[in-house]
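We treat protein structure as text, and this decision shapes the records that our systems exchange. The tokens are whole numbers drawn from a learned vocabulary of local backbone shapes. Below, we set out a record of this kind in full and without editing:
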Amino acid sequence: MNSSKTDIRKALPKLIKVGLVDDQPLFRAGIHSLLKDFDNLQVMLEASNGKELFDQLKRQKPHVILLDIEMPEMNGIETTIQLKEKYPEIKIIILTMHNEEEFIFDLMTKGAHGFLPKDKSVEEVVDAIYAVMEKGKYYNEEVMDIMVKGSKGLVRNLQLNSLTEREIEIIKMICKQKTNKEIGEKLGVSMRTIENHRTTILVKTNTKNVAGIVMYALKHKLISRLEMM
């Protein structure tokens, strides 16, 4: 360990408390086991979705949460939004298999402090934990490249709370009464990915259900009544 890292870590809490939120028990167990090798880190809670997490946060609060996107009941997008609102002091690092620009920028604007693909080493996970504690953010080179490539249009759109082309495409299919399964098959993605998009669409359009999305689409001329027939 070089001296600069030593100096940084001296300024942090003696024990950094970590939360793991992922619906795969084996993945949680693996991360938990690996983090035990680091004396300054302690996994203090585990949850399989956002609802379980918020139940536990009533009793104990970690400094950092490692959060998956695709989870049942309450996914990572909705969990990030609520964490930002209810517990803004908690740092959020997204651990996921997704590296699409729209997911990265969307989660950044919703309050995530770091983004890390699941196939990275435990050392990089630990570096990310220390980075968000010290600097408030962490993005590796791979994610930074994606951010730079998409920054000209996508960042501006998300900052203005506008919809991406993919989200508009999904809205049109929702208006045509397509199910998540049908939309996923059409776009070549999983049902959970479509569920995540639906959550984002509800937030961006400030709607609560499918009927609200349809009304929004008609009002903003994203689709015509004729196209819906």
